[in-house]
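Support request, please re-run this one:
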Amino acid sequence: MPEFKSTIEIFQNDVYGYHVPVPDHIIEQFLSYDDMRVLYVLNEKIKRPGGFMKCAKYHYLLLNKETVKKLRLQRGSEVHVSVEKDTSEYGMPMPEEMQVVMDQDDSGRSFFDQLTPGKQRNLIYIVSKIKNPDKRINKALAIMEHLNEVEGKLDFKMLNETIKKYNNMDKAW
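Re-run finished. Output below.
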């Protein structure tokens, strides 16, 4: 598993926030793959799925605020990073609840499979970020209903409305 040390940086415009620049010799090891999806470990503590991104000057791994906070990192903090190719089907773990819902909805699953990998990961993330299993099921059901309603033409504004509807149904119980 390739490893390197880097420092936490923040883009000047702060659009993406915290990131870790990746040395060229690490990137070169992944260029033969179809995509740049990886699993990375920060400071031997937190393992996360991600992807090498590129700005004008270098490649980087994007960090979310939760990870930065959990590891008590800030701009300029040195981090130890190890990376490996992500061989999972979607580039991140599929929540069990979403898998069960998709297994029961052939048309919704078909629409999901036709989405771009980035949109698939986005929907998976929407479900996986929820801690409560019942609420994860509700989110997955809302996503499948939306995909069926719009025949796979994902509209995040409409999806949010469908999710709100499912959240309100949950409160009515």
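The radius of gyration is 18 Å. The longest strand covers residues 78-85.
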